[in-house]
């Protein structure tokens, strides 16, 4: 097949020729010549409405002026963008737009980057010919993030089109007609969509501005530093902007990143920056003296840590010390952390898995590495013929990936979704399937079996046996999916050659993770158009450096680059058990909000209470601090240079945007300084040198460089480790307890999931996010609610064997019968304190 | 989308006219086209276009309630508050204006004791000045609940009003 | 004395035409039979082109030519939309056909659908026409029962559906692209052209939009031939026209005439029975509220499309509004400006802002608070008439400009005295 490029046309604009693909709007063709035709409503990513009429141009042989945004370039066209007729029309449109516009530039946050100001200076008149009362509209409160000042609006409708066409929720609309037209939400209710903040960037005037930044600065005072958002594994490119004369971060803007977030970011990333300005920080190291944490110097704190660790390790060996690091800090910090344990303390008790208890040391994610899954969701969905989402609620988990999937769906790529509860992506999916929460494995097993049968593919005997061990008779019913539904999905999969599978944490974490990933990878193989190639399967870990933590070897049994460790240490669960049984004498928690994150809060609390020596290092006073013997104040993400590896394996560098808080050290500085106490021979190296060490130690990072990472161009290579073995041995027997009926007194299964607007992690240190957060609720099926007499909104008590919480009930058909779903993490509603992970049974009482 | 689902107790159209919804949706190749016909139906059932009516129509069409509000506010016939049992719409445009529409309007305002855009306290009448009703050759004209009255004079409108039960 | 030439209104008033049977007795649906059985779609288009029939909604585009713009061999469905949104102030002709001879319209629609290869027509009728919508709905249901709508019409193997769609109070939906967006269930925002509806119209499919009167002329053209129809009227305006006469005349009404046989003044005298009280005429709007007003001394020109155009106005939608010597022309200019302000969809800048600005200035002038220079300012704003998406802004500009031009002295009279006072009032105290 011969490749033919697009048909090209040559036209003349202001006397100069330009050749562009046919169909290019004149306004874009002009831009190629450096001619910037003024415009308000046109935006290349939105539908074209040609309503502002500012971009009118004169075209030879066409009697009327034409909008250059909606008129395609044509062969031989002769266009004038600055003829008298054009300039006159432009001046008139500017006058029309300004007649009703308030003259409040001095207090308008758009000032300095306002298109109305810019074009007025360039094309407007000096004087007004308008002598009447200006139109005014009531000012609604549309939520804590966005300020809507209708009087400044010029009705370009960019915001309306963005919400409808890209964010997928037409929450902003134009109401009324003619001069009474204005932008509103339904009945002036607050905006809910998590991408709404992008309308601020799109608004060419001061109608939509940030409430979080409002009145705190003028834009010309702001200095920008390129950074990477730290709030999820997408790793959006952003600019952190701070005022020159203070260390206050005052604005976050998306930074163009073609392969990741493009030009959009979510509201959590955009409006959460006040976490970096929070006064609620750990500011000085503290040491427990006579039961109280008291401020001390870094030298003293580090000296004390070294002294204690040397004693413990000296007496009992490295195995008596352990370290848990959250999946959040930079690759450099993560790398040094495990080096510190392995090289200095001679301990392999290192783990970053704070949120789940792996079924075996090689958890679901490692299984996917072993199976050589591509693990590049962004790259994959761009080229796949169909997208299959399993066990993920993308809108609540990875907002920008959600946006990209939505974009693929509107481009006509079929998206299929199977999850245990409805998601906001369902409406754009070509097919949606639900299964009972907790029954991921039987569902996948059944789906794989049926798909293989339809494709007449033979599965390995081991696989066949595993599948049948999960299909004991009435398996479909147990999984809550009918035979017919699974057949339907299998039929679709059978015809989905070239599809890609994205698997969410509800499937790949936990004990069933490895098995589920095996099943999903097998399914992916069946659909792959590349026979013998890697399975088109991507897991979706959620934290900003989940991938980095894995690559850096923060595992008890695998070092940097997944290199096996001869004598594996303990994983998180085993370390916590060790704290309780006394076999672990010292624990370092580094950037890990363990009490809120660990699935068994009770166990975690007992471990922290019991361990003789606990060091907690973090930027914020999480609930682990009161248990610490020594607390170390760390810098925030905004104060540190570092690289982070996103869900696609893209290694991206963030620059420190502001000076470090006095008294705090970056993770790298803290670990280096600690290492010095052993005379480790680590010179005071900077992060770029550590990155060089990483590139040498991690084979699939070997081509990565500090410079390229700064340009967002660095992607980790596929992992190629031949020693990897995973087995299905865990199959039926070890998972069987999950499918047993509930305990007699605890009839409901507790189902948990992510919620974007909760107060997990750093979110609770950003006041704007706290004001936007939605309160926690317990979702129940109407049938169950009726049985126990629960009504919508009534407070119910959820009781498990380990604890209870009270939450308002929400009655929804979306809930599976026999289940109570609680989404999100709330500091004051410790839903992880109710049950042990493999006994998720609770009762509900009024 | 359970977390944004409106927990609306009443869904009057669905309860009262389920068949009609399907009948309307079937008329058009694209669902959204049914918005105006459904709003007429909602008007009929809810008595006016209340926020709840907009939410229900939005749910039927799988669009946002805001989208429906945008439509409702564009088309001036849709009432955003309760109208009277008799909703009087008087043409005030050019041909009627030339032939005495203002006197007709004033007479009605005086008789009913309300201004244009208002409803009488007992809820029986509401009065609205509207654009051209295409009754120009029998001007001035008005409609009461959609029924047309032509060649109006102040005397004649009083007679008409009084004859309504 | 000039007389009517009744073609479309032939039986109206004298016979009941609401049922298929009544309509057939008067020769109805014969043309459909001819169109389906004796003519190819191309021949129908040709016949209509030959008739010289032009759009009766106001713009006057040749109907046959419009139909020929439908791309050949399209894969998408083709739609016909009948524009029954009759809303131009002064215009009240289409509703006579709708309410009194609905099958004439349906027959015209069916023939047009055959000609352009459409199997689905929509009649977009303005929401205020409650009665008309009901009559059409009943007529459609009866026609369907009689095998005139639906599958295999008249056994000729042609399928066609007609659906009534009620608007809900928006003048802009009479603009053809505004009609389409409204029919798609959106705010009735007009669209930029190109693309023209014949290429990408309703649901992005090829679409023809024709006015009620236009479509109603089609059956007679098919039955008697394009040449027969073209023999009536003038070169630029063949056939008969329905003219709506309203305002200050003794016998207002809708009259069907052949253009070229009388002057405007004769038309007002012979059909309108003159002005009440024998008063003098001050001005006449010859083609619906958007068209420039003519002064009394311009009324002795022939009532033709060409001559009215020469006089600086247009026959537009055929609505003639007569204003006698008692009329305050500033008040009328303001009234019309308010109408366009109310009906501007608000989508594009000049119309949204301009219509409101017009009202603000004219209101001040009318209240004696005009400022010197207001007339020049109004005229300057008028210069942007062709910068909007659709013709509504021009339709708002034309009356303002025409009233200013034709009756400038009335505006000046209201501005002058006040402005002197105003200046005195605002002069700084020394």
Give an account of the 3D structure.
The complex is a heterotrimer of chains A (846), B (165) and C (430). Chain A is an alpha/beta fold and 846 residues long. Chain A folds into five domains: 8-97, Roll (Ubiquitin-like (UB roll)), CATH 3.10.20; 132-275, Alpha-Beta Plaits (2-Layer Sandwich); 286-352 and 554-633 and 665-702, Rossmann fold (3-Layer(aba) Sandwich), CATH 3.40.50.740; 366-539, 3-Layer(aba) Sandwich (Dimethylsulfoxide Reductase, domain 2); 741-845, Barwin-like endoglucanases (Beta Barrel), CATH 2.40.40.20. Chain A has 29 helices and 33 strands. A seven-stranded mixed sheet of chain A has the order 14-13-24-23-22-15-16, sandwiched between helices. Chain B is of the alpha+beta class. Chain B has two domains: 3-74, Arc Repressor Mutant, subunit A (Orthogonal Bundle), CATH 1.10.10.1590; 86-164, Glutaredoxin, CATH 3.40.30.10. Chain B is 44% helix and 11% strand. Chain B has eight helices and four strands. Chain B has helices spanning 12-16, 18-26, 35-46, 51-61, 65-72, 94-98, 101-112, 154-163; strands at residues 86-91, 125-130, 142-144, 147-149. In chain B, strands 2-1-3-4 form a four-stranded mixed sheet, covered by helices on one side. In chain B, helix 4 (51-61) packs across helix 5. Chain B is elongated. By secondary structure, chain C is α/β, with parallel strands linked by helices. Chain C has helices spanning 20-25, 30-37, 41-51, 63-68, 94-100, 102-116, 130-145, 176-183, 212-216, 218-224, 226-230, 264-270, 305-310, 329-343, 349-366, 374-382, 392-406, 408-426; strands spanning 79-84, 120-125, 150-153, 158-166, 207-211, 240-247, 253-258, 281-285, 294-295, 319-324. Chain C has a five-stranded mixed sheet with strand order 3-4-2-1-5. A five-stranded mixed sheet of chain C has the order 7-6-10-8-9, with no helix packed on it. The mean pLDDT of chain C is 94.
